[in-house]
Amino acid sequence: MKHILTALALLVAVPATAAEKLTVALDWTPNTNHVGLYVAQAKGWFSDAGLDVEILPYTDTSSGTLVSTGIAQFGILSAVSFYSQRSMGADMTAVMAVVQHETGRLVFNGEREDIQRPADLDGKIYAGFGSAWENALIASIIRHDGGEGTFDTVTLGTSAYEALANGSVDFTLEVSTWEGVNSVLLGRPQRAFAYADYGVPDQHTTFLGGNSTWLAANADIAGAFVKAVQRGYAFAADNPEAAADILIAGTDGMLSNPDLVHASMKALVEEGFLRDPGESVGLIDDTLVADFTGFLFKAGILRDANGDTLKEMPDVSGWTTNAYLAR
């Protein structure tokens, strides 16, 4: 009898099916681009799918590196970083488009009368973030407008926005749905040039990506996770106010400006960045991927595993997939 009772106790103590543990890496400190993860976590949709999901804190190691090396099974990925790492052979695949269209803008003080068009930026000072992509992007925009594409760069990182406000630099790049809405809240008038108006292809600026080797070996688990995340972003697209509150509550005080979070969510939804009309949230557009990687290739941004500039446009058809999404 003693042995039978011991066996029954073990059966009660150990669930028949343990939750599958997964980790997700963020591409930056928590912000509205991550809202679907926090909604799915708070609503219990991960646990409903048999998943125990840990959202890893942001570190100096890029989310793409964490995913491609298998430290994290999934990650939120900046599109340009994803394409750059993928061209070098990184073991990862984009499985969902978090942001459907380009949110980046080239911005300058709205009271500047001497800047009316991109060609006026020739010879001026750009506050940058240290990537080759920025220089190629800005030079392309200026040349498309008839300028030479020459400007001085000072690398300031996130201090660029204060530098722009105090006039120590002439222009910078920002995410319209975060820094852009924050400039409005701060009462700092800006004007902006949209990339697509000056020859730069539209793009999905942010992806959810997974480790390719892990995806191939765990298709069912991957599908369950991606669909739960997709459901989180769909909720956010339909309920931006509630989603903003969930994000604030789920990030342990890291988002100290609720007005910014709510304004950002409103911009993401009202300007159509989370969902295209008539489509499911998260769908990746193969044409956007091909056109934008073509732009990066022509600009000399894409490199191979040895760090050499690619001489031929890579086949990007296997870099992304919609296979794990609910349609």
Low-pLDDT runs of 5+ residues are: 1-16
Look at the structure and give the mean pLDDT: 93
The CATH superfamily of the largest domain is identified as Periplasmic binding protein-like II
> What is the name of the CATH topology of the largest domain?
D-Maltodextrin-Binding Protein, domain 2
Distance between the termini: 53 Å
Helix content, binned percent: 40-55%
**What Rg, in angstroms, do the CA atoms define?**
22 Å
As laid out across the biggest beta sheet, the strand order is 2-1-3-10-4
The CATH architecture assignment of the largest domain turns out to be 3-Layer(aba) Sandwich
- Helix and strand element order: HEHHEHEHEEEHEHEHEEHHHHH
Shape: globular
How many DSSP helices? 13
- Tell me the strand percentage band: 15-25%
Biggest β-sheet: count, sense, barrel? 5 strands, mixed
CATH class of the largest domain: Alpha Beta
Q: Structural class, please?
A: alpha/beta
Quick gist of this model?
With 327 residues, the chain is of the alpha/beta class.
Outline the structure in words.
With 327 residues, the protein is of the alpha/beta class. It is 41% helix and 17% strand. The chain is built from 13 helices and ten strands. It has helices at 2-13, 35-43, 45-48, 63-68, 79-87, 132-144, 160-166, 176-185, 212-217, 219-238, 240-250, 258-270, 286-298; strands spanning 20-25, 51-55, 74-78, 92-99, 104-109, 125-128, 152-155, 171-175, 190-194, 206-211. A five-stranded mixed β-sheet has the order 2-1-3-10-4. Strands 7-6-8-5-9 form a five-stranded mixed β-sheet, with helices on one face. It is globular and about 65 Å long. The model is unreliable at 1-16 (pLDDT under 50).
